[in-house]
C-alpha cells in the first residue's frame, strides 16, 4: 500500500505530527513529526499549520450563486429576492451555461476555503422544471473525486392542492434527473402541513431524505417546524431530515422553544441555522431591537438536537456578500449565535457531516483523511483571522491550496 504523509501538522492539542494516509483515503497512522520531511513521493509539508477536519457546507444555492450584479434586489428582503429571481428568469437572464459556470465557480470558492462536501438546494419550479438541477449536476460532474455534492430539489410554491400540481410535476422530473433530497418552503405554501406531507411522501417513494426551508420569517404565529417533527414521527419516515433556517423558533418564548426543540430531537431532525442570509434578509421592518433572525440555537442544543450551520446564499439577491468560507459562518455563530469557537467549528465541520450522512472525521487511524491545514494558532484564531493560507485534502489527496502574503512596507 502506498502511504502519503502529511508532514509536520499541528493538532489542536499542540502536538506536532505526521499523518499517514493509505491509498484507501483513510488515515493509517498519526505519529510524532519526523525531524524533517522524509521527502517521499506524495508527502506534503504542512510547516506546523493547524490541521483540522475539513469543513462542509450544509446549505448552498449553487444555481443562484454569484448573481448579485446581474439580479439586483432593491427591497432587500426575502420576497424582494424571490420576486427579483422570478423576474430575471422570465426575462431569460438565467441560462443553462450561466448556471453551470457560476455553480462551478462557487464550488471552487468553497474548495479553496477548505470545504470537501456541499449540499446545495436547486430551484425546481413549474416554469423551469428540472432544468437548473440538470445544470448543477453538469457543474458537479467537473468536481468528481474532488468534492462531495448533494442536491436538494427546492420546490417552488405552491406545492399543494390543484395549484401545486405543476410544481409536483417538476419535482417528478427532478427525481428522474437524480436528486438526493426533497425540499420546499412550508411557510410559503397556503397549506404548510400539506407541503410537508407531499415532501415526506415523495421522499419515501424515492427512498431519499428531505431538507426543507422552514419558517424563514419573523412571524411567531407560523411554526411549521412542529408540524414537521410530528409528521416525521407519525409516519415513521426513515430518511435523513433537515430543517434549514427555523427563524420563527427564535421568536417564541423559552417554554415553547424548549417544547418544540424536544419534539425536533425526538424526530431526529437536524437544524441548520444560516446566519449570513438571515441577518441580511430578516428584520428590515423592525428598526427597534432588530431581530437577528437566528433560530433558538441554545434551546435546540439543550434538547439534544444536532445543529450545523451554513452560509446559504452567497453574492446573489438573497445575500449580497459572503466569501464561501465556512469560517465566516463560524464567526457569526460565535458573534450572533453565542457559541464557543470550538462548538462553532464543529457546526461547520463534523456536525454537518453527521447531519448530511457523511462519515465523521477525526485525526485518528481509520477515519477519512478529509482535512484542512490552516496557518493559524488555534481554532479561535482561525475563525477570527480566517487566514487564506490553507491546504485542503480529500481522502488524503491535496485538492486545493491557497497562500496569503502580507507585507508592511516600513518607511526607510
Ligand atoms: Zn436556502
Describe this structure in words.
It contains 13 helices and 15 strands. The mean pLDDT is 96. It has helices spanning 78-90, 96-113, 131-141, 165-177, 192-206, 224-235, 254-266, 275-281, 297-302, 326-335, 341-347, 350-356, 379-385, and strands at 3-10, 16-22, 27-32, 44-45, 50-53, 55-60, 115-124, 148-155, 181-183, 209-214, 241-245, 270-272, 371-374, 390-394, 397-402. With 412 residues, it is α/β, with parallel strands linked by helices. A seven-stranded parallel beta sheet has the order 6-7-8-9-10-11-12. Helix 2 packs across helix 3 and helix 10 (326-335) crosses helix 11 (341-347). Residues 59, 61, 121, 213, 244, 312 line the site of zinc ion (ZN). Residues 59, 61, 121, 213, 244, 312 line the site of zinc ion.
Quick structural gist:
The protein is of the alpha/beta class and 412 residues long.
Low-confidence residue ranges: none
Mean pLDDT: 96
Distance between the termini: 56 Å
**Which shape, going by the Cα principal axes?**
globular
Rg over CA atoms = 21 Å
Structure ligands: zinc ion
Helix content: 25-40%
| Largest sheet descriptor | 7 strands, parallel
Number of helices: 13
Spatially, the strands of the biggest sheet line up as: 6-7-8-9-10-11-12
Q: Approximately what portion of the residues adopt beta-strand conformation?
A: 15-25%
Number of strands: 15
List the helices and strands and how they pair.
Elements: E1 3-10, E2 16-22, E3 27-32, E4 44-45, E5 50-53, E6 55-60, H1 78-90, H2 96-113, E7 115-124, H3 131-141, E8 148-155, H4 165-177, E9 181-183, H5 192-206, E10 209-214, H6 224-235, E11 241-245, H7 254-266, E12 270-272, H8 275-281, H9 297-302, H10 326-335, H11 341-347, H12 350-356, E13 371-374, H13 379-385, E14 390-394, E15 397-402
Helix pairs in contact: 2-3, 5-6, 6-7, 10-11
Bound molecules: zinc ion.
Amino acid at each position: 500500500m502506498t502511504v502519503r504523509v502529511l508532514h509536520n501538522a499541528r493538532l489542536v492539542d499542540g502536538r506536532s505530527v505526521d499523518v499517514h494516509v493509505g491509498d484507501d483515503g483513510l488515515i493509517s497512522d498519526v505519529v510524532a513529526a519526523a525531524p524533517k520531511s522524509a521527502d517521499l513521493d506524495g508527502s506534503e509539508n504542512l510547516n506546523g499549520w493547524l490541521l483540522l477536519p475539513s469543513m462542509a457546507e450544509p446549505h448552498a444555492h449553487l444555481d443562484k450563486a454569484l448573481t448579485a450584479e446581474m439580479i439586483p434586489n432593491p427591497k432587500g428582503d426575502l420576497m424582494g429576492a424571490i420576486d427579483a429571481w422570478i423576474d430575471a428568469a422570465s426575462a431569460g437572464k438565467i441560462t443553462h451555461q450561466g448556471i453551470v459556470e457560476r455553480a462551478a465557480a462557487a464550488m471552487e470558492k468553497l474548495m479553496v476555503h477548505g470545504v470537501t462536501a456541499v449540499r446545495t438546494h436547486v430551484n425546481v419550479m413549474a416554469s423551469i422544471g428540472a432544468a437548473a438541477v440538470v445544470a448543477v449536476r453538469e457543474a458537479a460532474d467537473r468536481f468528481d473525486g474532488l468534492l462531495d455534492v448533494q442536491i436538494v430539489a427546492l420546490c417552488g410554491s405552491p406545492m399543494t392542492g390543484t395549484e401545486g400540481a405543476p410544481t409536483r410535476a417538476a419535482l417528478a422530473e427532478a427525481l428522474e434527473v437524480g436528486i438526493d433530497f426533497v425540499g420546499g418552503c412550508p411557510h410559503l405554501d397556503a397549506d404548510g402541513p400539506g407541503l410537508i406531507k407531499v415532501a415526506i411522501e415523495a421522499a419515501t417513494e424515492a427512498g431519499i431524505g428531505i431538507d426543507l426551508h422552514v419558517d424563514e420569517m419573523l412571524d411567531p404565529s407560523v411554526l411549521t417546524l412542529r408540524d414537521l417533527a410530528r409528521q416525521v414521527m407519525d409516519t415513521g419516515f426513515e430518511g435523513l431530515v433537515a430543517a434549514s433556517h427555523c427563524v420563527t423558533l427564535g421568536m417564541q418564548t423559552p417554554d415553547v422553544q424548549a417544547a418544540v426543540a424536544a419534539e425536533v430531537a425526538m424526530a431526529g431532525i437536524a437544524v441548520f441555522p444560516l446566519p449570513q442570509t438571515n441577518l441580511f434578509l430578516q428584520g428590515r421592518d423592525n428598526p427597534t431591537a432588530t431581530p437577528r433572525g437566528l433560530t433558538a440555537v441554545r434551546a435546540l442544543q439543550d434538547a439534544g438536537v444536532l445543529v450545523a450551520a451554513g452560509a446559504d446564499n452567497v453574492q446573489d439577491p438573497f445575500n449580497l456578500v459572503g466569501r464561501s468560507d465556512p469560517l465566516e459562518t463560524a464567526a457569526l455563530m460565535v458573534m450572533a449565535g453565542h457559541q464557543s469557537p470550538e462548538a462553532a467549528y464543529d457546526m461547520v465541520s463534523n456536525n454537518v457531516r453527521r447531519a448530511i450522512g457523511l462519515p465523521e472525521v477525526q485525526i485518528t487511524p481509520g477515519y477519512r483523511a478529509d482535512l484542512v491545514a490552516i496557518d493559524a494558532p488555534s481554532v479561535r484564531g482561525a475563525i477570527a483571522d480566517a487566514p487564506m493560507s490553507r491546504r485542503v485534502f480529500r481522502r488524503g489527496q491535496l485538492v486545493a491550496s491557497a497562500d496569503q502574503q502580507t507585507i508592511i512596507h516600513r518607511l526607510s
